[in-house]
Design a protein that fits this description.
The protein is mainly alpha-helical. It contains 14 helices and two strands; from the N terminus they run H-E-E-H-H-H-H-H-H-H-H-H-H-H-H-H. It has one domain: Orthogonal Bundle (MetI-like fold). Strand 1 and strand 2 form a beta hairpin. Helix 1 crosses helix 14, helix 3 crosses helix 7 and helix 3 crosses helix 8.
Length: about 300
């Protein structure tokens, strides 16, 4: 009997292994190997054509004396500070509206999710570039209300803001997660607050926000990571201009890899970016015990 059970267990294990083999192959080839290779190459001089030459910490020392790298890091930081709060706030705002019992609400929920499906592809980037061009729709609207047109792509700050708006516009996925969290907030809490004469605004800040802090935490982490890794929008719309005002760190990494063939230097940049993301993520996790509340085990924090 034991031998039969062992045979069945072994067979089931082999079947399970067969199912996950494609994923394992993909993980080893397209995730683990590039990570290990980039870590090794960050300590070398490598131009993609000749064999890597070990250079020790020279690439990392060079980074912090490179004004272009420091500027790209500064611009990336501004972009993250701009995008993450705006996207979270707007996503939550729309989710609150879509959580109401309104006529045709299912249609609006679907419609508001569409931008996330489209994403920052080439067609959307061209459309966005047209909307914010000198004679684009945005400036036409401003002119119709007697406001001066804005040179969106002629100055660094408006250009960065226009790129950030594209990411904020793609709020569908974040909104859906917020919407699911809002539906899990206990109705009896609102009923008890109504008995005490609480207003809707107070309910939002005293009941809704505390109840959905785990989801806010999750969305914040995801959007933080995505913002630091932003590449498509500035590359397709502004190419990093004007005056490198939208030249984010991933674009600099891309240029050093495929334009200047400095694979070793680009790998060092990638690991610095990874460390920055990891540090901010760890800080967020450590701070979560002060502001994230879980409703497990009778409402323990």
């Amino acid at each position: 009997m034991k031998q039969l059970q062992k045979a069945i267990y072994k067979k089931e294990s082999l079947i399970g292994l067969a199912y996950i083999t494609p994923w394992l192959i993909g993980f080893l080839l397209f995730t683990l190997y590039p990570i290990v290779a980039s870590f090794y190459l960050s300590f070398t001089n490598y131009d993609l054509l000749n064999a890597p030459v070990f250079a020790g910490l020279e690439n990392f020392k060079r980074l912090f004396a490179d004004k272009e790298f420091l500027k790209a890091l500064w611009v990336t930081g501004k972009y993250v500070v701009l995008v993450v709060p705006l996207k979270l706030a707007f996503s939550l705002f729309v989710a609150v509206i879509l959580n109401m019992n309104l006529k045709g609400i299912n249609f609006f929920r679907t419609a508001y999710y569409i931008p996330s499906i489209l994403g920052a592809n080439v067609a959307i980037a061209i459309l966005w570039k047209f909307l914010f061009s000198t004679d684009g729709l945005i400036n036409q609207v401003l002119g119709s209300i007697h406001l001066a047109p804005v040179s969106w792509f002629g100055q660094a700050t408006p250009a960065l803001f226009s790129i950030a708006l594209l990411r904020v516009w793609e709020f569908g996925s974040t909104m859906v997660i917020f919407l699911a969290a809002l539906k899990e907030v206990p109705v009896d809490l609102y009923e008890a607050a109504a008995v005490d004469g609480s207003t809707k605004i107070k309910n939002f800040f005293k009941i809704t926000i505390p109840c959905i802090t785990p989801v806010i935490f999750f969305n914040f982490i995801m959007q933080l990571i995505h913002a630091f890794q932003e590449f498509n929008a500035p590359y397709l719309i502004t190419s990093g201009g004007p005056m490198k005002g939208t030249y984010l760190l991933p674009m600099l990494i891309y240029d050093h890899t495929f334009k200047y063939y400095n694979m070793g230097y680009a790998s060092a940049m990638s690991w610095i970016l990874f460390l920055i993301i990891m540090i901010f993520t760890l800080i967020t996790f450590r701070s979560s015990k002060y502001w994230v509340f879980y409703n497990d085990n009778g409402g323990e924090k």
